[in-house]
Amino acid sequence: MIATEEQLIEWSAVSQIQYAEMSGQQFVNIQLKKLEQTLRYQSAFAKKTTKANVVLGLPGINVNTSIAVGYNGIELSELMNEYLKHHRKKYVID
Fold it and tell me: Do you know which NCBIfam families this protein is assigned to (predicted)?
């Protein structure tokens, strides 16, 4: 599971994880299979931010990597992709 400020997101809901940079900041971009369904449970601010990120070409949830102690953005995205890969091997994903 991936934790946001307001909820946990199942690995099965994730379609892709990638490293991204925008305005000099590093992010891990987590793209979801059903973004609108996940946004339903987010705060109004989170919904607006996510919709603005879609316009900028970064759909989904963006995690600012400055919060990751001991990892840079690339390392964090690689680690998260390993977790995603492990989950997909363990479970059948539709």
Answer: STM3941_fam
Which single residue is written with the structure tokens 């299979």?
33
How many angstroms separate the CA atoms of 68 and 34, rounded? 26
pLDDT tens-place values along the chain, 94 residues long: 566 666 788 888 999 999 999 889 999 999 999 888 878 877 888 888 888 888 888 888 888 898 888 899 999 999 999 999 998 888 765 5
Find the domain containing 20 and state its range.
2-90
What gap in Å lies between CA 93 and CA 71, rounded to an integer?
Answer: 28
Q: How many domains does the chain have?
A: 1
